[in-house]
Amino acid sequence: MTDTPWQGDTCSLVDAFRAGERSPSEELEATYAAIDASELNCFSYLDREQATDRAAAADVSKPFGGVPTGIKELDSLAGWPATQASLVFADQVATKTATMLERAIDAGGIVPVGMTTASEFGGLNVSVTKLNGVTHNPWRQGRTAGGSSGGSAAAVAGGLVSIASGGDGGGSIRIPAGYNGLLGMKGTYGRIPRGPGAYMRPNTVVVGCLARSVRDAARWYDVCAGHDSHDPSSLPRRVEGWETSLGSEDLAGRKVIVDPRLGGVTIDTAMEGIIVDAADALIAETGMQRVAGSVKMPVMASQWAMGNLATLLADMGDLWPRCRDDLTDEMAVGMYLAQSMYNLHTAAEAEKLRTQANETMAAAFDEVDFVITSTNPGPAFGAESAMSSEQASFVDWAKGSPAATHAFRAAMWGVRVGGGFVPSFPSRLLDWVSRRFPHLVEMGALTIPANITGNPAASIPVAQQDGLPIGMQVIARHHADPLLFDVALAVERARPWPLVATHSPR
Q1: What pLDDT digit, counting tens, does each position of 144-198 carry?
Q2: Euclidean distance between CA atoms 248 and 381, whole angstroms
Q3: What is d(CA 291, CA 365) in angstroms, rounded to the nearest whole number?
Q4: Which residue has the higher pLDDT, 317 or 471?
């Protein structure tokens, strides 16, 4: 019998299946036993009966044949809950299976074991919701797993499953990968299809996985990437295999900008030194060339966030604002803000900023092959935090008491009315908020730019700070995903990272 789930990478688990050293059924049994015993709270739903049947019939000749796999709570699998990690949709059931999951199950042979916890509607990079409670980081109980793919990251790094699905609309694969010591690959926009029924707006979301190794992520791309007619933005399938091509790119002479702060984002000073040291080591090992420079992206996190909430309003329909008390306070505040501040003028400003962002990123990649930054502003923060900054802000004020809540709603009504007379007023107010509360717009400020521009980016584990993982983000030009995989491979070969959390002190 298998006492614990596989602690190596997924590809080696498949090898063990094929060699007869382990069986999918035994592995699944060990997986559920570990989940039941875990204090991470990273699964919100388990499908034991269907998983048991799949494991018993698993075809281990498939790329992921028989592998127990976590499915992010925001992904759609027919017959499973479709909660969006929110009490608002606690009773909703999915009627469709996402194309990525369909491919992972049918062509890949994965065994979905259950849904991994996510932040509500994927709206925040934290791992706490009203529906599921708090998900913990396996490296240290009481620290966040990040978001929105925090449950997937905790499950993989915590040794419960060797791989799990994820999605990244503003850093939601890379942020938890950085906090949990995993590889988080966000491909070029459209690399893996998002259909059926995926919103096109705001053209930033990609899907993928949380992986322990580079080859695991590359194999996921082999199975899941490629055009699908239900997602017109999806890219054609690559002729060369992702996994078989690993290590084939020549990195020598490639030019790199090392800019841990990405033009000025506030990050932990000690971590900045870690990123610079890791980047210098990578450059020396591969023969790449460091180029002086910085990539100063326009600050557009507030406009981006307001625009994103339009799809949430479409989901909730006439449930809003009656469902306000079922939402986390931060999402409810965000909805009121967006309703009041997002108008045609704000949308125009957002498009102008997005064009500036595209031009800035394009100019950088006219000169270099990679931009290296930090993935996160610091190590994993407190798990109970509803926002990635523990600094007090107007959000705390707005939810602080019934009187403050009513005052906030009245203020937002005033902003909406004022916007009718002076359309530029909401946009100017957003700019003021960004300057007055910079920590709000710096939530994901290191990762959002690559979503805005569609560039591929990966978080690669490079070190630890106070026993917590640190991720180095590498951004590449559009469609240079193979190069990015090989950069991650170079780090993995030179300085292998722990595949699972090595300790979990309280």
Answers
A1: 999 999 999 999 999 999 999 999 999 999 999 999 999 999 999 999 999 898 8
A2: 38
A3: 12
A4: 471
Give a yes or no: residue 148 inside a domain. yes
**End-to-end alpha-carbon separation of the chain, Å?**
31
The rounded percent of the chain whose pLDDT value lies above 90 is 74
Query: Element (H or E) spanning 53, and its range?
Result: helix 48-56
What range does the domain containing 143 cover? 10-245
Q: Per the structure block, which two tokens stand in for 167?
A: 């999605």
pLDDT at 348: 82
Selected catalytic residue, list 72, 213, 302, 374: 72
Strand order in the sheet with 163-168: 43-46, 111-116, 68-72, 163-168, 206-211, 183-186, 457-465, 468-476, 370-374, 255-258, 289-290
Whether the Cβ atoms of residue 192 and residue 207 lie closer than 8 Å to each other: yes
Q: What is the mean pLDDT of the chain?
A: 90
Does 426 map to a domain? no
DSSP annotation string for 350-412: HHHHHHHHHHHHHHHHHH-SEEEEESSSSS--BTT-SSS--S--HHHHHTSSHHHHHHHHHHH
Judge whether 166 and 122 are in contact, CB under 8 Å: no
CA–CA distance, 290 with 64 (Å, rounded to integer): 38
Residue pair 382/390 in contact (Cβ under 8 Å)? The answer is yes
User: DSSP class of residue 291?
Assistant: -
Number of folded domains that form the chain: 1
Backbone torsions φ then ψ of 72, nearest 5 degrees: -60, 140
Asked if 368 contacts 253 with a C-beta cutoff of 8 angstroms, the reply is: no
Q: Which two tokens stand for residue 274?
A: 């870690």
Residue from 23, 25, 148, 149 carrying the catalytic annotation: 148
Q: Which of 172, 374, 388, 389 is catalytic?
A: 172
Per-residue model confidence as pLDDT tens digits over 1-39:
578 999 999 999 999 999 999 999 999 999 999 999 999
CATH of the domain at 115: 3.90.1300.10
Residue 65 domain-assigned (yes or no): yes
Q: Closest Cα partner for 126 from 359, 416, 390?
A: 390
Q: What is the pTM of this model?
A: 0.92
Can 148 be counted among the known catalytic residues? yes
* pLDDT band, residue 206 (cuts 50/70/90): very high
Q: Exposed (0-12), middle (13-18) or buried (19+): which is 160, by Cβ within 10 Å?
A: buried
Question: Is residue 227 included in any domain, yes or no?
Answer: yes
Q: Cα dihedral angle (433, 438, 440, 441), rounded to 10 degrees?
A: 90
Helix axis angle, 214-224 to 99-106, nearest 10°: 100
Active site (annotated) includes residue 44: no
**Inter-CA distances, 166 with 119, 143, 243, Å:** 12, 20, 19
CA 44 to chain centre: 18
Is residue 38 annotated as part of the catalytic site, yes or no?
Answer: no
For 445-504, the three-class secondary structure string (H helix, E strand, C coil) is: CCCHHHHHHCCCEEEEEEEEECCEEEEEEEEECCCCHHHHHHHHHHHHHHCCCCCCCCCC
